[in-house]
Amino acid sequence: MNDMSLTNLQAGKTTVKAEAIEALAGQLRGRVLTENDAAYDEARTIWNAMIDRKPALIVQCIGAADVINAVRFASENGLLVAVRGGGHNIAGNAVCDGGLMIDLSPMKSVRVDATAKRAWVEPGATLADVDKETQAFRLALPTGINSTTGIAGLTLGGGFGWLTRKFGLTLDCLLSVDVVTANGELVRASPTEHRDLFWALRGGGGNFGVVTAFEFQLHELDTQVLAGLVVHPFADAQTVLQQYRQALETAPDELTCWAVMRQAPPLPFLPEEWHGKEILVLAMCYSGDVAAGGQATAALRSIGKPIADVVGPSPFVGWQQAFDPLLTPGARNYWKSHDFMELSDATIAILLDAIRQLPGPECEIFIGHVGGVAGRIAAEETAFPQRSSHFVMNVHARWREPAMDQTCTDWARRLFEAAKPYAAGTAYINFMPADEGERVAAAYGSNYGRLVEVKRKYDPQNLFRMNQNVRPIEERGAA
């Protein structure tokens, strides 16, 4: 923090004295940034370019003590708090206007105990950080499909991807967490300590505190998997999706296959005449013996007459990064999501109609294939409620020009509303945009009431509300 920033600071409706800011900076191993600092703009910039918020203060934390001091400072000064891990959340809750942003991105340590098959991970680590460290020991943690995503937000909201059917959700592998609660106290939450808090953190998002360390159970996974894409003409999409649905009924837990519909990017293995045309892609990964994967993927790969089939042995770390080029920071993004128990013909028709009306070349719909081990855990065992749904739809509107904001968000909303009658009613909170606050209670289903009780106990003043917020009052009493 430079000397120019040491003046009284207007933070929302609160004036924070320069002496208080200077005292906070002196307590930290990390640093305090204000808008006068050269690093400020970079620190407040996150993945979704639609989010352009300006915190009054950014505390870049190096350890748990920094987080404790930041939380206490925010509480004592009545400041709105935002918490940044990877900064990848679609709603943009990592950054606030006029409050204090707790930036955990410098805290990137990943430590593996190969004998115990455990990992201790700090909240600033990305999925790539975790994958590279664990795979060095032929171990893995089930996470998401974009390696630049932060491990913290992913875990607290759920975490599903290529290994979910084999090993469960990311949060299912959680053994303990160190978390700074709203009163500025660092506690350990586990199956034997603060059990109610541990339950809530597994799916309840950032509502209950700031996690400074995660302890995960790891699983054995070879460095090679059978993975890749099978690309179909969009004209065949209805038949392909119907046969895809049927093939998955007997899929082993090791096999995961997602369906993606969009305009074809200029991929090197696609004939040039297909670039920019609508396609349907079956993206699959077999997380077992590569030889056995050939038989397991045969039914999916025999569907229709694909334009290209590039499924083959792949380094798992490389496959985890395969979609990164399509999800780089700097674009404007808006998502809408549903859980589905089944992929009905009516749902398929709605999806295909939306693809025929794509508003831009980067907009897409993907259908995540879940279930398996993750689906065999009771809904009440963790705060995450969506154990029975077999598919997760993400309507991903993505574009570059602000003038396209209304067109692209309207497209996503229309599809969401059209598909609602066929959806399960729950929702994956990590896919929910900022304008879906009224959907939170329904997203958690029967677990919501218990989440309110935990929130009331650990954060009765709702200090941590920059999230898909569980308010510490019953919904009927909420303003």
Automatic annotation (TrEMBL):
Cofactor annotation: FAD
Pfam families in the cross-refs: BBE, FAD_binding_4
Span of the signal peptide: none
Boundaries of every FAD-binding PCMH-type domain copy: 51-221
Keywords from the named record: FAD, Flavoprotein, Oxidoreductase
Family: Belongs to the oxygen-dependent FAD-linked oxidoreductase family.
PANTHER family: BINDING OXIDOREDUCTASE, PUTATIVE (AFU_ORTHOLOGUE AFUA_1G17690)-RELATED, FAD-BINDING PCMH-TYPE DOMAIN-CONTAINING PROTEIN
Record protein name field: FAD-binding oxidoreductase
Taxonomic source organism: Sinorhizobium chiapasense
